[in-house]
Amino acid sequence: MASWMVFAALAQFITAGIVFIDKYVLVTKSHVGKPIVYAFYVSILSGVVLLLVPFGLVSVPSFLVLLLSFVSSVTFILSIVLLYTALKEGHASDIMPIVGGVGAVATALCAWLWLHEDLPNAFVPAFGLMVLGMLLISHFRLTRRQKFLVVFSGIFFGITAFLTKLIFLETNFLDGFFWSRMTNVVGALLLLAAPAHRKAIFSGYSGSSSGTKWLVISNKALGGVAGILTLLAISLGSVSIVQALTGLQFVFLLCIAYFLSGRFPAVLRGEMHSKGLSHKLLGIGCVILGLAMLFVT
Q1: What is 154-183 written as a DSSP string?
Q2: How wide is the angle at C-alpha 142 spanned by C-alphas 137 and 143, nearest 5°?
Q3: Can you give the three-state secondary structure of 204-252, one letter per residue?
């Protein structure tokens, strides 16, 4: 196997672990485990990019770059609030395939509508497979509310990816990376404008142990490692195959659920429940195949 494929697979393994830790925090940590609180701290940690400033690696952005960055931060925060709400209530191995599939389709449609990129030849059958997979997963496993949460989370994730692409078309990589992350910080601070959010966020910080705080920080640092591995894989190999390997994340999530459900029953209870399991496995297979058709072809 080529080294870049190993990097891409390792990135998806790490991402699956990140999802598990997110689920653990949301379910077991009552103070910081509220979706709006967790989303605030995840977004505010984007401020680590300030480390680039002393090295003179960042320049003043144009109005368009700043506007795109801010809008992408709004859609990003909306997507993670919806995702964390769904993860708190449902099962990660049900939720993530649907979010990933909807996000991939939303990105492709946005690029087709506004960048006039050609849709892949296999878009229709790939879309059909992903829809079938999502229906099979959600039929026995998700409530109507959870279906709403995961579909709109995926849509907002897809829009965020599209807006990020627009930012990189307008400026260089480092500037685009910096400003898209700094506006996440601005978006997080805007959450403090609502008194109920402000009270929950401050009480979440003061009421959480130092161990929980470091767990959240370490988990987001792992997210950075996964991002670097993905970028490295893209630079060395095929971007289409790297995107298609996103499907490995769902396989790794199932493996984590299988091996750790006994150790973390409160977190993973029901992930491998026999009811609807065959539909779930078949549905995940359809989503993975649809992703492969969408990106590889």
Answers
A1: HHHHHHHHHHHHHHHHHS-HHHHHHHHHHH
A2: 150
A3: HHHHCCHHHHHHHHHHHHHHHHHHHHHHHHHHHCCHHHHHHCCHHHHHH
Confidence of residue 275 (pLDDT cuts 50, 70, 90): low
Chain centroid, CA 197 distance in Å: 22
C-alpha dist (Å) from residue 85 to 9, 10, 26, 95, 150 = 27, 27, 9, 11, 9
Give the distance from CA 66 to its chain's centroid: 22
How many Cβ atoms are within 10 Å of 184's Cβ, its own excluded? 25
> Can you spell out the DSSP letters for 34-81?
SHHHHHHHHHHGGGGGGGGGGGT---PPPHHHHHHHHHHHHHHHHHHH
The pLDDT value recorded for residue 55 is 82
Q: Give the Cα separation of 45 and 205 in Å (integer).
A: 14
Which letter does DSSP use for residue 90 in this model? S
CA-wise closest residue to 98 among 50, 131, 123: 131
Give Cα 217 to chain centroid, integer Å.
16
